[in-house]
Design brief:
Length: 181
């Protein structure tokens, strides 16, 4: 029975562990626009800039997905940690306590696992790795992306539009994790 309880606890703990995905760096942000620099045709430049902006938006979509996935992973990890802690404190410790022949050290160890799970949850959230931080960061990026897009569609100058394509990449690359209140 003890071995089964220990194995179950280990499996539950491992189920909450997962590495976070990464986002690949963008390609040359103005690749299409650069091909039209020698061409005086403003319409051709606009078409190529639109392609560059589509690429920037594709990159931003990957960044936004990164934050969404991290929110999901973080939520699952916190749930896994909570289940292990609840299992250790609510099932294993009482079960071991009921059997007087078992050692006190096993009871203390499982009680420690329960307390450690609570501390781990608070540490994850306290270090802005909880789901709310990732969701908040994603929302902050979305607001910035919308602002750049509004400016892009209002702008007529090819050079200014090129700057906005670069700002789009910058908006999605350089952002802060939203901290909890």
């Amino acid at each position: 029975m003890i071995k089964q309880l220990c194995l179950t606890g280990v499996l539950l703990a491992l189920g909450g562990c997962r590495s976070f995905p990464s986002v690949d760096l963008p390609p040359d942000p103005l690749l299409n626009y650069r091909s039209t620099l020698a061409n005086p045709d403003a319409a051709a430049k606009k078409v190529e800039l639109d392609k560059d902006m589509q690429s920037a938006l594709g990159f931003c979509k990957n960044v936004l997905n990164y934050y969404e996935k991290n929110a999901t992973y973080s939520s699952r990890a916190l749930t896994g940690i909570a289940v292990v802690g609840a299992f250790a404190g609510g099932v294993v410790v009482p079960a071991l306590s009921a059997q007087a022949t078992l050692s006190k050290s096993a009871i203390a160890a499982w009680g420690g696992v329960s307390g450690l799970a609570n501390t781990a949850q608070n540490t994850v959230v306290g270090n802005n790795l909880g789901p709310d931080s990732f969701v908040g960061s994603r929302a902050k990026i979305m607001v910035s992306v919308q602002g750049v897009m509004e400016s892009y569609f209002k702008e007529e100058s090819a050079d200014k539009r090129a700057e906005l394509v670069l700002r789009m990449y910058s908006t999605c690359i350089s952002n802060d994790i939203v901290t909890g209140t």
